[in-house]
Design brief:
By secondary structure, the protein is an alpha/beta fold. Helix content is 40%, strand content 21%. The chain is built from ten helices and nine strands. A nine-stranded mixed β-sheet has the order 1-2-3-5-4-6-7-8-9, sandwiched between helices. Helix 5 (164-180) crosses helix 6 (197-208). The longest helix has 18 residues, at 28-45. The chain is globular.
């Protein structure tokens, strides 16, 4: 070990800290107690923004895409003077539908082609799909270079004791509450998925909010431990500080937050060729999350898969996820 390397020094500290995190629980009662504390810490330290503005919003336009799908644009309020734009793809059936929230990954606007195609596929299957726009990207951009914009946001948030990930979660929860008020959506049949950093946002969202019916992170499951000690040491690590939550490893890693969804249906889908999400972290998380689901006797509701598809909602990834949400949200009409 190079004694002059601060990174190597911190990698060793991360390994030591992760070794202290719990990896086994004797029953659901013990897990629920741990989960309660984890959620309380998360809500306070992201922090999660919940206030009288949460879930309020207005429709800003409706456009027909085809005979079976329409696009509605909406502005959903998160806080005073803070609004998130949302693209809502709706099936044309005259009955309320389930819904899926789609959380974009880093530096990919909500109107990126594969989000649009995936959302339309869900709508054609009878599921409303809502795609959020996150800070620093697309309609929410302050400057042309997304990486710098998001890093500026994360840095300013840290000065205030906040995490950029917390804003993504707060956006998600506000959109979730907006959808729950929509008479065209079945409020207890809302799922959530996210790509890459969007999977991290979705992961923290389901840990902070119990109301989601199904959950499918895409190309975004490993561990912070593996990112710091493996990927960052070989390939340079994730872009910027926005995926990292201050002091999180004192309380949990990916597996603990993902397991918060037990015993409800979860599909964690990574791809084999993706260097951003080390396989050893994927395996460690699968082992722990499966353990928690088994405590509930719900092992069949928790699936971890690897695909050979692009880092996007395309190919077998899109097919598997549409099928998953059709099955878990109970689409009723042809």
């Amino acid at each position: 070990m190079n004694k002059y390397s601060l990174h190597r020094y911190l990698q060793a500290k991360v390994l030591q800290q992760c070794a202290l995190l719990p990896v086994h629980f004797s029953g659901t009662g013990e897990w629920q107690e741990y989960k309660k504390g984890l959620r309380s810490w998360l809500e306070e330290n992201l922090p999660v923004i919940r206030n009288p503005h949460t879930g309020s919003g207005i429709s800003t336009g409706i456009f027909m895409i085809s005979d079976s799908v329409s696009l509605e644009t909406a502005d959903v309020q998160v806080d005073e003077n803070l609004t998130v734009p949302v693209y809502i793809y709706r099936p044309s059936a005259p009955v309320p539908s389930p819904a899926v929230m789609i959380c974009p990954g880093f530096a990919t606007p909500a109107n990126t082609g594969f989000y649009v195609s995936f959302a339309i596929s869900l709508a054609e299957a009878g599921i409303t799909a809502a795609v959020m726009e996150y800070g620093g990207t697309g309609l929410c951009a302050d400057r042309p270079v997304c990486e710098t914009n998001v890093n500026n946001i994360a840095s300013a948030a840290h000065l205030l004791g906040m995490n950029e990930a917390g804003f993504r979660v707060s956006y998600n929860i506000s959109v979730f509450e907006y959808l729950r008020k929509d008479p065209g959506i079945i409020k207890d049949k809302i799922g959530i998925t996210g790509l890459c950093q969007g999977a991290i946002a979705a992961m923290y969202t389901i840990a902070a909010e119990d109301g989601f019916a199904s959950f499918a992170p895409l190309c975004g499951v490993s561990t912070y431990e593996a990112e710091v000690t493996d990927y960052a040491g070989r390939q340079g690590g994730w872009t910027g500080i926005s995926p990292f939550v201050f002091n999180v490893l004192k309380h949990g890693d990916f597996m603990h937050f993902l397991a918060a969804f037990a015993p409800k249906p979860m599909l964690a889908l990574n791809n084999i060729i993706d260097i951003h999400w080390p396989l050893q972290g994927f395996g460690k998380t699968r082992k722990f999350v499966s353990h928690i689901y088994d405590l509930y006797g719900a092992g069949d509701e928790c699936t971890f898969l690897l695909s050979h598809s692009p880092h996007s909602y395309e190919g077998e990834n899109a097919t598997a996820l549409v099928d998953f949400f059709i099955r878990t949200l109970g689409v009723k009409y042809d």
